[in-house]
C-alpha cells in the first residue's frame, strides 16, 4: 500500500482549464506564475486538439464508445506536476486557489475531495494492517510456543536424563530454539509464496484498468529488503516463542 500511495502521489497533477477567449497577455501572465513557483516540477501546455485525441484514445483503450461529435468540446489547458514533498497535497491546494483567481482561467481540477478521502483511507488501511500484523504475530507466538511445549513434554524423560548426567539447561534448549526458528522460517516462506500468487493474479486482472486511468501506476510486490526483514522477523518470533516454552519448562523443573 505504501508503494501504491507513493506511486499515486507521484502522478497527481493539477490541470488548469483556460477560457476560450483568453488573451495572449493573460496566458503569458499564467506562464510566468507557473515558472515562478519553485515547487512545480514540470508544466505542459495541452491544446484542445491534443486533449481531444488523448480522450478518444483513452475511451478506445478502456473499451468505451468512440465519440464523433463533429466538434471539439475540450478547452486548452495546462498540466502541472509538483516536486515530491511531505506537504505536496497542501501545496497543490494552495496553488489551485491562487490560479483559480486569475482572469482567463475557466477552472482548476486536481480531485481535492478524492485526494483527501484517498489519503485518509490509506492511513486507515495502514493502521488496520499494522493491528492485524500485531495480532497475527501474537497468534504465531502462541502457536509455535504450544508446538514447542508439546515437543518438550514428548521428550520429557530424555531431557531430565540429560540434565542428570550433567547437560546444561542452555544445551537442552538449543534444539527447541532451532526448531522454533525453523518453524518461523517455513511459515514466512509459505505466506510470502501465497502473497506472491495473489499479487500475480491481481496484477494480471486489474493492471490494464489501472493503466487506462493513471499511466505509470502499477501493482508492486514487497521490495527485496522488506522481504528479508519479514523473514527475519518471522524467525525472531519463532525464537521468542521457543524461548518462552523452554524457559517455562525449566522453571517447572527447578521447582521439583
Question: What ranges have pLDDT less than 50 throughout 5 or more consecutive residues?
Answer: none
| Count of distinct strands | 4
Number of helices: 8
Percentage of residues in DSSP E strands: 5-15%
User: Oligomeric status of the shown chains?
Assistant: single chain
Sheet with the most strands: spatial strand order: 2-3-1-4
Order of secondary-structure elements:
HEHEHEHEHHHH
Provide the gyration radius in Å. Answer: 30 Å
Structure class = alpha+beta
Distance linking N and C termini: 52 Å
- The shape, in one word, is elongated
**Main beta sheet, described?**
4 strands, antiparallel
State the helicity in percent bands: 55-70%
What is the number of domains?
A: 2
What is the residue-mean pLDDT, rounded to a whole number?
80
Note down, in words, how this protein is organized.
- The protein is an alpha+beta fold.
- The protein is built from eight helices and four strands.
- It is elongated.
- The mean pLDDT is 80.
Key words describing this protein structure:
elongated; alpha+beta; Alpha-Beta Plaits; 256 residues; 4-stranded antiparallel sheet
Give a summary of the structure in a few sentences.
With 256 residues, this protein is of the alpha+beta class.
Amino acid at each position: 500500500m505504501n508503494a501504491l500511495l507513493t506511486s499515486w502521489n507521484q502522478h497527481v497533477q493539477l490541470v488548469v482549464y483556460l477560457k476560450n477567449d483568453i488573451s495572449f497577455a493573460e496566458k503569458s501572465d499564467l506562464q510566468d506564475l507557473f515558472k515562478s513557483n519553485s515547487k512545480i516540477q514540470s508544466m505542459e501546455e495541452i491544446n484542445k486538439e491534443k486533449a481531444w485525441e488523448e480522450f478518444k484514445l483513452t475511451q478506445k483503450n478502456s473499451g468505451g464508445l468512440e465519440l464523433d461529435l463533429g466538434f471539439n468540446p475540450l478547452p486548452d489547458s495546462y498540466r502541472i506536476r509538483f516536486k515530491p514533498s511531505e506537504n505536496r497535497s497542501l501545496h497543490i491546494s494552495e496553488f489551485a486557489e491562487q490560479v483559480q483567481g486569475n482572469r482567463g482561467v475557466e477552472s482548476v481540477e486536481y480531485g481535492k475531495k478524492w485526494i483527501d478521502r484517498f489519503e485518509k483511507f490509506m492511513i486507515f488501511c495502514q493502521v488496520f494492517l499494522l493491528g492485524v500484523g500485531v495480532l497475527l504475530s501474537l497468534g504465531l507466538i502462541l502457536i509455535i510456543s504450544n508446538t514447542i511445549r508439546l515437543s518438550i513434554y514428548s521428550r520429557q524423560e530424555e531431557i531430565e536424563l540429560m540434565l542428570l548426567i550433567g547437560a546444561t539447561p542452555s544445551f537442552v534448549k538449543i534444539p527447541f530454539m532451532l526448531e522454533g526458528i525453523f518453524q518461523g522460517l517455513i511459515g514466512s516462506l509459505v505466506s510470502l509464496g501465497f502473497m506472491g500468487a495473489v499479487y500475480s493474479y491481481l496484477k494480471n486482472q486489474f493492471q490494464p484498468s489501472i493503466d487506462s486511468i493513471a499511466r505509470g501506476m502499477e501493482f508492486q510486490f514487497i521490495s527485496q529488503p522488506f522481504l528479508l526483514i519479514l523473514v527475519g522477523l518471522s524467525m525472531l518470533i519463532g525464537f521468542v516463542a521457543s524461548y518462552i516454552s523452554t524457559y517455562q519448562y525449566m522453571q517447572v523443573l527447578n521447582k521439583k
